[in-house]
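Need the bound structure for BES, inputs here:
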Amino acid sequence: MNKIKYLKIIFCIALIIGVNLTSSGNAQEKQSNMRNTSAMRTMVKDVHSYSNPQAVKVRHVDLDWNVLFDKKILRGTATLTFDRTPNAKNAPLVLDTRDLTIEKVETSVVGKSYRTTTFNVGAADKILGAPLTIGLPANATRVRIHYSTSPNASGLQWLAPEQTAGKKTPFMFSQAQAIHARSFIPLQDSPGVRVTYSARVRTPKNLLAVMSAEGNSQTSQRNGDYKFNMSRAIPPYLIAIAVGDLQFHELGKRTGVYAEPSMIEKSAFELSDTEKMVEATEKLFGAYRWGRYDILVLPPSFPFGGMENPLLTFATPTILAGDKSLVSLIAHELAHSWSGNLVTNATWRDFWLNEGFTTYLERRIIEAVYGKPRREMEATLGRRSLEEELAGMEQRDQILHVDLNGRDPDEGFTGVPYEKGALFLRRLEEKVGREKFDKFVRGYFDKYAFQSITTKTFVDYLQKNLLAANPNLVSVTDVDEWIYKAGLPKNAPQPASDAFVKVEAQAKNYLSGKISVGAIETKSWTTQEWLHFLKTLPTDLSAKRMAELDGAFNLTKRGNSEIAFQWLLMSIRNDYAAANPRLEEFLTSIGRRKFVKPLFEELAKTSEGTKRANEIYARARPGYHPITVASVDTILKWKKS
Ligand code: BES
Ligand code: ZN
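Answer from helper R.:
Posting the output first, comments after.
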């Protein structure tokens, strides 16, 4: 009894030290504490995590969850297995949490039973959440945390039956990137900390649970009790779950799609090139190392286009255009199986390593599967949108190695890491030639497979393995300009599309009055040509022109989400009232942030528009994901409720 009391006091002291260390936020102090061993020297500080992996490193996460739809919470345990650095034996375990209710924490030494231990939840920061500090007895190797999530967890969305395609059963899904895993699992939520994971998930009997792991069921059998295992070490932002009325459809020998039953046929048709894409990527960049590649098509409130959850890409239903014209999104998420999931950004300021490489790979896959003209169209659209974005962007955000200290890492989600990153890699390819460059990229994936690396590690590798052998082609100064300076270097590649040149010529002739709207030859236009046409038109268009274009091409009624979005943006800008009902329908049925955010921003530019925006948002907000809500709340100055 006395001994327990004594231990408790020791834990409390350790806790206080731990709390002081983390809440002081003194990076320098932490850094100097870290210089003690060589292993610590290689760790960079992740400013978006409270955790202390330099002292205690979590290796495996075992989850046991009850999915409680009536309460909109996950309730259960997370058991973390960790290693401890020899000279940090007294250090507590510090985890990231956000809005979690921690009921009890236990620790154990391998083979021994669990005992309750002390813990402390520190003050919550708006961006980072709250540190959970757990006192560890000398030989502890595991902690078991009993907890539940909040109905407002930033990384989960709970959908009522009406918000699904089937309208009969509820749905739940997670979205952990960048720092939302901590809102449903207490863990070291840093992309520099890789873990394997296992899970047991209990759901209502009629629903299926799927995860970014091995164990997803391909049959329609359901018992409400599912088990998963992720045997490869992944960063926490790739842990993902969805629960709903889901059906599986095979696409190829190792590929398939999950969707609600009423969406499965459409999804399977749209995604029928998936196996071909995996094969093409393997040929270019080496073996696919994860086993299966499946895609989950989510309800329309999914806030992103896609999310590269390993073994199971999560995708918005807005890519289901009916003609496979928007599947570069799948090429993108698939490419992350190499750039991002295999070789991962160590911190969020290295995000461009994930997204720049992935956008580059995406275009290479598109070229391999659909040909160079399609690649050049998409690359041109990418470069154009980057240029537009750069024009209105602060200098500090135009840098690939962006400084996100004190900021929400979601602020780094701009076109810069994607398109500027991809242009940089294309520039390298153009300079050294495709053969050498592809060999370099394959070598890079092999060398850093299943590791998390910083920009500096990449630059050193680049220097040694590409630049050193080709000093006259690319200089270190060039590379520095790309990575550490704002804006686009003068020598940035300029993608070129013959098809787009023709589209521009027609737009010009139409605008000058040389040809009538009916004489524009649109019959063979692809989605990309339509998008380019609309974007080529001047920002200000007369009411007559808007009506004329709509009359000729039925733009307000287009089902293709990208075309509809572009047209609706133009409709707001030019006060084209005939598109109002479609705008309302679009904003109240789709929650993809890439579409929703710019439309509300455009509306908010005028007082009349702001009024309409608020009316529409009042109806749409309950159906939006927390991530989309956060963005639109800021635009329309809504308080968090
Ligand atoms: N990993 C990203 C999505 C992401 C990034 C979520 C950062 C949260 C924080 C994903 O791979 C992605 O880039 N999706 C894009 C689509 C892509 C085709 C550009 C999207 O959702 O728009
Ligand atoms: Zn991506």
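Comments: Residues 177-178, 304-308, 329, 332-333, 336, 355, 410, 413, 418, 594 surround BES (ligand 1) (CB under 6 Å). Confidence is low (pLDDT under 50) at residues 1-41.
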